[in-house]
Amino acid sequence: MRRALSMINVLDVRQGDGTYVTSLDPALLLDALSFVVDFHRDDTVLQFLEVRRILEPAATALAAERMPTTDIAKLRVLLDELSAAPTVEALVANDVESHRLIAAGAGNAVLCSIIDGLSGPTTRARIWRGLTQEGAVAKTREQHQAIHDAIAARRPDLARAWATVHIAGVEEWLRRAA
User: What is the pTM of this model?
Assistant: First the structure.
């Protein structure tokens, strides 16, 4: 819970120094509280994830067919940049960039733009999942690897399947959490 409160800027955790409340300003505390309440009440994030689950596997399959080899190499570098035990922030930033590269690799600017627009509203849910679900970091890394491998092997059906598993996992976790 301390880590979660740190992520939403209620606590400042200083390694070797202690944990401090960032502010008792009601606006900050209410913002943090509203995030948690909205997260558990509002199904809008679930609706965004449903749309992502429909569109991103199709984009990933297209990327397996169309993504230039140089961009597949960039995706590999991006995956390799992530440390063995990344922070949730680093994992989510890497996740967002991976999805962006894959969407661009589909070779359809309209589809890429739509997917980019769907990413933002689900970022907080991805952060919360990384903080609260056991094994979420390892699972995300494994799924990203499988998606990359399917794209690199030019196997659209496998790429589509792994992308579906990846996004459906976040969606299913959120359904249970809400």
Answer: 0.75
DSSP 16-29: TTEEEE----HHHH
Extents of the domains making up the chain: 1-41, 43-177
d(CA 27, CA 165): 38
pLDDT tens, the chain, 178 aa long: 455 555 555 556 677 777 665 655 555 555 555 555 555 555 788 888 999 999 999 999 999 999 999 999 999 999 999 887 888 778 888 888 999 999 999 999 999 999 988 888 787 777 777 777 788 888 888 999 999 999 999 999 999 999 999 999 988 888 887 6
Q: Assign domain 43-177 to its CATH architecture.
A: Up-down Bundle (1.20)
CB 150 within 8 A of CB 162: yes
